[in-house]
Design a protein that fits this description.
alpha/beta; TIM Barrel; 8-stranded parallel β-sheet; 12 helices
């Protein structure tokens, strides 16, 4: 069975003290996870060491950086490298979140470099893709997402692609309170898997976890995660509430 993942993306939120409290509340109450169930905390960079310490004794629980740079080291003030993440034991990184694409002009080509440097250094990329409201209203979401995948991921050999986690984000449903219906989520997740299968084959496509990221809450997680091609969620606001995020973890297949 594919990995089923509940990934918390805290974005730029919480003080150190608040982060410490939230991590402790969630981690101590995580239920026993099955082999295919993983929990990931994508915390702000200053809290990665804290998160590593908190999750250390837990099975199938990981930390992630919210971003990483294309170079391993050098004169790139303010950036975070894969070498730094390796030295902390951090083994996941979010790549290409819609906010990084929009606010920091990250291109598909740059994201391809980020994915590559992560894979070369044993860091699992959580690669984000998804369309804005205008694209969906024009009914061009399938072509739009396919292009993101092709330009950032399809240069990888099959054995490398299988190490990538994909997160589909309908941008119009992030932080807006709007949520794609479970049927809409399944439709796009199936499209992504089928598009991968056309290039790499069905066996490869069926090994890749595809997460849904768009206003996932404790109340809707079970229905969304119950769709056949949805393998968990990349969770924003709800992951800042211990009770909510624990409900989401419990909803994993």
């Amino acid at each position: 069975m594919r990995k089923q993942i509940a990934a918390a993306n805290w974005k730029m939120n919480l003080t150190y003290q608040e982060a410490e409290t939230l991590l402790h509340q969630v981690v101590k109450n995580i239920p026993k996870l099955e082999d295919q169930q993983h929990v990931v905390f994508a915390v702000p960079a200053p809290y990665l060491d804290l998160a590593q310490d908190e999750i250390a004794p837990k099975y199938q629980v990981y930390t992630a950086a919210q971003n990483v740079y294309t170079k391993k080291s050098g004169a790139y003030t303010g950036e975070i490298s894969v070498i730094m993440l390796n030295s902390l034991g951090v083994d996941h990184a979010i790549i290409g979140h819609s906010e990084r694409r929009e606010y920091f002009n990250e291109s598909n080509e740059m994201l391809a470099e980020k994915v590559q440097v992560c894979l070369e250094n044993n860091i699992t990329p959580i690669f984000c893709c998804g369309e804005a409201l205008q694209v969906r209203e024009e009914n061009k979401q399938n072509e739009y997402v396919a292009k993101q995948l092709e330009e950032s991921l399809f240069r990888l050999p099959a054995d490398q692609l299988q190490k990538v986690v994909i997160a589909y984000e309908p941008i119009w449903a992030i932080g807006t309170g709007k949520t794609a219906t479970s049927e809409q989520a399944q439709e796009m997740h199936a499209h992504i898997r089928n598009h991968i299968a056309k290039t790499y084959g069905l066996n490869v496509a069926n090994e890749i976890s595809i997460l849904y990221g768009g206003s996932v809450k404790g109340a809707n997680a079970k229905e969304i995660f119950g769709q056949p091609d949805v393998d968990g969620g990349l969770v924003g606001g709800a992951s800042l509430n211990a009770e909510e995020f624990l409900q989401i973890i419990k909803a994993l297949k």
